[in-house]
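User: Structure please.
Assistant: Input sequence and predicted structure:
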Amino acid sequence: MSSLPRTSARVVDIVWFMGAVLGAGARRFVARLVRGPRRAAWSAKLEAFIAMQRASYSMLPKLGIDRFHRVSQAVSPSSTSGVACAPVAADGVRGHWLTPADHAKGPVVLYFHGGGYIFGSLRTHGPMIGALARAAGLRTFALDYRLAPEHPKPAALEDALAAYHWLIEQQGVAPEQLVLAGDSAGGNLVLVTLLALRDAGAPLPAAGVAISPWVDLENSGASFQTNAPYDFVTQEACNIAAAAYLAGADPRAADASPLRAELSGLPPLLVHAGAAETLVDQIQEFCARARAAGVDVTLSVYDDMVHVWHMLFSFLPAANEALAEIGAYARARTRHERGVRARADAADRSGAR
């Protein structure tokens, strides 16, 4: 893959960050030896990872958004899991094409990384996005959208809409051959992009995939408390991210919190949540509202899993199962929509005769 630029960070910040992260992993390993696993289904490796992620999130209020973003970039690998990667900067759209072997043509996944709208990139999320592209067997465009606080709402949505129209108008991708996908804040961006396309009367994609989506920027849901002992995403971190992204805007607005939106007319959705994640309650409420509005929603809640467990595909079977489910769904939806369009075109030709 092409080398991804590494954001510079202060050495002292990197040392502080890595000390907190590695120390948390070591302490959790020792605690497990003494007291046993926090959840019976968790392996030692999974438990150590969660402890390390929790420690990394605890650094957000200590470092502040800019320094946290820089450190997270600096310590992340330059990898897309062996999937070919090529940068794009054209027509105001920035991102990377990830192309699995023998899949240079055909349907496309437009992917939005997570990070609370305040951090994240292909560097932090590249391994998972590459694994997803390979599992789906589909070309994937990973959008490098603008981040808060320098670029608050609606900058990310503007970038997502620009990328969607660029794929259709400049890259020749038919809407029915497009799937929007994203994790966490990227899952939020999938949903608000679909709402904006619907409201504009624009052609909708074949489907949307939302992985552990952050659907309520007011950060509601009892699972923020009940799953706090298990997940690494905290209400404090979500509050910091929401304040930076909203910059005083209404968190209940439809283009901020899909949970509060009128949801009819959306394309089919696949939504993933972990039963042990702090966002699970708001995710389940969103899916219930979407179904009540007539949306074709497939909700998969994975037992004992935390926020975006898909990142752990290198050692966690449930992560590979989830990626495989998404890949199969994306392929099936693009095949279905291609068939619908072909039958409609055939009917039009028959009527013309």
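The chain is about 45% helix and 15% strand.
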